[in-house]
Amino acid sequence: MASEEVSVEEQVRALALAEDLRATLGRFVRGVRTQANTPTTSQSETLSLLDRSGPLTVAELAERRNVRHQSMRLVAGQLEAEGLISKMANPADGRSQLLSITDHGRAELSRGRDARTSQIASLIEERLSEEDRRTLGAAIRIIERLC
Q: Which domain of life is it from (predicted)?
């Protein structure tokens, strides 16, 4: 019985820790994106997916990003209007089109990543002691084990 109580306590602590991690990382990512003036998460995730996977249809993008087709179509329209992606005929299905990242899209994706990395580096330099930096390095390795 005592081991069950400990297990429940461990579960409660794990849930609380998970919520704290989720909320903190979310605030951190949103703050860095805002301060670095980089695209919305939906835009950057879509560009990253096209960069990694190659050309995809709107339906495939929506499925892989776990969003509605209509939402993905809106994001794709914004990206296309900005010249970050382009459409091409789908050789496997003449009724659909493939979306692919453009050279401009790759450059913007890289610029955004660099800007966010620089913003994070500035925050680390400004706000963290050497001991905090070592602790952050250890925390990153722990988080990687969760991936």
A: Bacteria
Query: Is the torsion defined by CA of 65, 66, 67, 70 positive or negative?
Result: positive
Can you tell me the distance from the alpha carbon of 119 to that of 68, in angstroms, rounded to the nearest whole number? 32
Q: Which helix (DSSP H) or strand (DSSP E) does residue 88 occupy? A: strand 85-89
**Cα–Cα distance measured from residue 133 to residue 136, given in angstroms and rounded to the nearest whole number:** 5
- At position 86, the amino acid (one-letter code) is S
Q: Is 97 helix (H, G, I), strand (E, B) or coil?
A: strand
Cβ neighbours of residue 68 closer than 8 Å, sequence gap 6 or more: 62
| Per-residue model confidence as pLDDT tens digits over 3-35 | 566 689 999 999 999 999 999 999 999 999 999
Helix locations, the chain, DSSP H: 2-36, 41-53, 58-65, 69-81, 103-127, 130-146
Over residues 100-121, the pLDDT tens digits come to: 999 999 999 999 999 999 999 9
Q: Which residues pair with 100 in a beta bridge?
A: 86
* Fold entry, domain 26-146: Arc Repressor Mutant, subunit A (1.10.10)
